[in-house]
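2024-03-11 09:14:02 DEBUG pipeline.ingest accepted 1 chain
2024-03-11 09:14:02 DEBUG pipeline.ingest length=195
2024-03-11 09:14:03 DEBUG pipeline.predict start
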Amino acid sequence: MRRMVLASTSVFRQQLLQRLGVPFDVAAPNVDETPRPGESEFRLVKRLAEAKARAVAPQFPDALIIGCDQVAILDEKIIGKPGNRDNTIAQLRAASGRVLDFLTGVCVVDSASGHALCDVEPFAVHFRDLGDQEIQAYVDREQPYGCCGGFKSEGLGVTLFERLSGDDPTALIGLPLIKLYKMLKHSGLDVLTRR
């Protein structure tokens, strides 16, 4: 079976990839994530997903390398990981009663051939109207400071939502497994048969 490598140190992405039941290595990509002038969010996440996979490929000469990147968009602006309590509260206040759009780029690079399969999975979070007290209670309980958008959908974050829309809920956590499975299979690794 081909070796599989996740080019990300994200604990959330590692937990998602473990769902496929195939052993994998983890490597930290060293990539400049600065958007290029005029670059759309779609192109940004697709480019960075591939760049992250290619950055670690030389360490694994015969492997399938998985790169990922994600942005959240509100008012046509990228919002990132809040980093602290005050920023998290501010992000959730801004998202209250609105839609936060996520774009998750995923790329599988075959380090032996250099061939890459890359795509972007959209997902939208429709927030209900949130009061300050419940925002603060949520933030204090879950402390999602390192999460894009300021919440954990796999935890108490679901209490903040009116609804979700998209084809793959794992894209919201940072690694769209439905799309990834198809890419891995196309690249010669079927995680179901382990061939």
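2024-03-11 09:14:41 DEBUG pipeline.report The domain at 3-186 is CATH 3.90.950.10 (Maf protein).
2024-03-11 09:14:41 DEBUG pipeline.predict end
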